[in-house]
Amino acid sequence: MPQRVLVVDDDRTVADVVCRYLTHAGYLVDHVTDGAVALAEVARQPPQLVVLDLMLPGLDGLEVCRRLRQRPDGVPIIMLTARGDEADRILGLQLGADDYLSKPFSPRELVLRVASVLRRAGGEPAGVEPEVLRDSGLELRTGPRVVILDGRELALTLREFDLLAHLMRHPGRAFRRAELLDRVWGWSFGDQSTVTVHVRRLREKVETDPARPRRIVTVWGVGYRYEPTAPTADE
């Protein structure tokens, strides 16, 4: 069945173009102009993805993003921001947006971003053997896209999961932020603060003390690496 995308934007001109391109690409598209209505629509019929404008009347995009991230289904979110709103864009990523585009943007690029996020949300493609990555109480399973820490399942966004999986596949190797943008996000260029924000969020979920990370460590002047932790006595 076609995948359903909810577009939340009060700019009729932008929304019409976005909806037209997504429909042409084969998605079922619904459009609302209000944050509160968007939350009610998601509760009524959860979409596979939400395209969410930051500037909305009443309940703004940041608050809508925060509330969507409280849902257990983890619906993917692509946030639309004004080009100059760097602080708000970073805050959106901190709240759990999976991707963003700055206005004005190419509708074709948005369609590609939607396809990329949904592809990742769908798990391993056909023919790819699922992986199980383990490290001292941390277990990542690529098939069901599940991460378990000390017996408790973690709530990770799509990008957080993909970032952790990439780092765990290459323990001890330092990656530049530009490399991570390319390999995890699929961007040949972009705002490298995106990586910084996701690393910070990931540390809050997998580190005992995020201020003194042991697993995802900073390599000064380079970027980040995954450092396997020492096994416990009963491992």
From TrEMBL:
<dbReference type="InterPro" id="IPR016032">
    <property type="entry name" value="Sig_transdc_resp-reg_C-effctor"/>
</dbReference>
<keyword id="KW-0597">Phosphoprotein</keyword>
<feature type="domain" description="Response regulatory">
    <location>
        <begin position="4"/>
        <end position="118"/>
    </location>
</feature>
<feature type="domain" description="OmpR/PhoB-type">
    <location>
        <begin position="130"/>
        <end position="228"/>
    </location>
</feature>
<dbReference type="InterPro" id="IPR039420">
    <property type="entry name" value="WalR-like"/>
</dbReference>
<keyword id="KW-0238">DNA-binding</keyword>
<keyword id="KW-0804">Transcription</keyword>
<dbReference type="InterPro" id="IPR001789">
    <property type="entry name" value="Sig_transdc_resp-reg_receiver"/>
</dbReference>
<dbReference type="InterPro" id="IPR001867">
    <property type="entry name" value="OmpR/PhoB-type_DNA-bd"/>
</dbReference>
<dbReference type="Pfam" id="PF00072">
    <property type="entry name" value="Response_reg"/>
</dbReference>
<dbReference type="InterPro" id="IPR036388">
    <property type="entry name" value="WH-like_DNA-bd_sf"/>
</dbReference>
<keyword id="KW-0805">Transcription regulation</keyword>
<dbReference type="Pfam" id="PF00486">
    <property type="entry name" value="Trans_reg_C"/>
</dbReference>
<feature type="modified residue" description="4-aspartylphosphate">
    <location>
        <position position="53"/>
    </location>
</feature>
<feature type="DNA-binding region" description="OmpR/PhoB-type">
    <location>
        <begin position="130"/>
        <end position="228"/>
    </location>
</feature>
<protein>
    <submittedName>
        <fullName>Response regulator transcription factor</fullName>
    </submittedName>
</protein>
<dbReference type="InterPro" id="IPR011006">
    <property type="entry name" value="CheY-like_superfamily"/>
</dbReference>
